[in-house]
From TrEMBL:
One of its GO terms (molecular function) is zinc ion binding. It is found in: Nucleus. One of its GO terms (cellular component) is nucleus. It comes from Myotis davidii (David's myotis). Keywords: DNA-binding, Metal-binding, Nucleus, Repeat, Ribosome biogenesis, RNA-binding, Transcription, Transcription regulation, Zinc, Zinc-finger. Residues 11-40, 41-71, 73-102, 103-132, 158-185, 187-217 form the C2H2-type domain. PANTHER family: TRANSCRIPTION FACTOR IIIA, ZINC FINGER PROTEIN. This is Transcription factor IIIA. PROSITE patterns: ZINC_FINGER_C2H2_1, ZINC_FINGER_C2H2_2. The lineage of its organism: Eukaryota, Metazoa, Chordata, Craniata, Vertebrata. Involved in ribosomal large subunit biogenesis. Binds the approximately 50 base pairs internal control region (ICR) of 5S ribosomal RNA genes. It is required for their RNA polymerase III-dependent transcription and may also maintain the transcription of other genes. Also binds the transcribed 5S RNA's.
């Protein structure tokens, strides 16, 4: 508990514009899926390939879409008896018994077979490639290659109209715009006699832990840095470049070996 009677939530989302804080690391990891777009929870219902970012959303989907729907088609193979809502789903399932895939690639010289239309469609990209949708003739061999092309070639410039500062994402700009608003909401430190204010909960939590409670348990693991942080996510996002380490090492070297902290190593020169 903090000095103001508030529960300390040390795990804070570092996505700019968010700042939500959590008591447990697991809750932060689950919340981060909302920003990354990852959907690790897949519907197990036959013929359904929908994905969700939380178990609760998956459960709601299943109860709404699958649990109460009538199943008409029954697998006739001995010992199976699985049921399906659509005939196509049944035929696709029976491929597992016969080992004879129904869906054949029609591309000249290929002839590969697949157990479902979705797998055939996914395979088709091997022949067709992934076309860029940004008024561009580029065709990638893989989805990853296409994403890289869009990121590097069609990078959208997100610029603050007030100060012309550029950002990688729109939510970063949205958070930045608060600095130009004289009536912006601020997070005020609850500790007596402090009065410091911050634009995000993350920065406030970091201030309380590092300044008032002197807790900076997370250390940069880069050789020669040893910078400490109050927040785990801050340590993870911290980048200590080799050039910065060399600059620090050179400065310490100029002071003389007696001034070098114990255990610090650097490239000589």
């Amino acid at each position: 508990m903090s000095g103001a009677g508030q529960e300390v939530r040390p795990f804070v989302c570092d996505y700019e514009g968010c700042g939500k804080a959590f008591v447990r690391d697991y809750h932060l990891s689950r919340h981060a899926l909302l920003h990354t777009g990852e959907k690790p929870f897949v519907c197990a219902a036959s013929g359904c390939d929908q994905k969700f970012n939380t178990k609760s959303n998956l459960k709601k989907h299943f109860e709404h879409k699958h649990e109460n729907q009538q199943k008409q088609y029954v697998c006739s193979f001995e010992g199976c008896k699985k049921t399906f809502r659509k005939h196509q789903q049944l035929k696709t399932h029976q491929c597992q018994h016969t080992n004879e895939p129904l869906f054949k690639c029609t591309h000249e010289g290929c002839g590969k077979h697949f157990a479902s239309p979705s797998r055939l469609k996914r395979h088709g990209k091997v022949h067709e490639g992934y076309k860029c949708q940004k008024d561009c003739s580029f065709v990638a061999k893989t989805w990853t290659e296409l994403l890289k092309h869009v990121r590097e070639t069609h990078k959208e410039k997100i610029i603050c109209e007030v100060c012309q500062k550029t950002f990688k994402r729109k939510d970063y700009l949205k958070q930045h715009m608060k600095t130009h608003n004289p009536e912006r909401d601020v997070c005020r430190c609850p500790r007596e006699g402090c009065g410091r204010t911050y634009t995000t909960v993350f920065n406030l939590q970091s201030h309380i832990l590092s300044f008032h409670e002197e807790r900076r348990p997370f250390v940069c693991k880069h050789a020669g840095c040893s910078k400490t942080f109050a927040m785990k996510v801050s340590a993870h996002s911290h980048r200590c470049s080799p050039s910065r380490v060399r600059l620090l090492s050179g400065f310490l070297g100029a002071l003389g070996s007696r001034m070098v902290p114990q255990g610090l190593q650097w490239e000589g020169g």
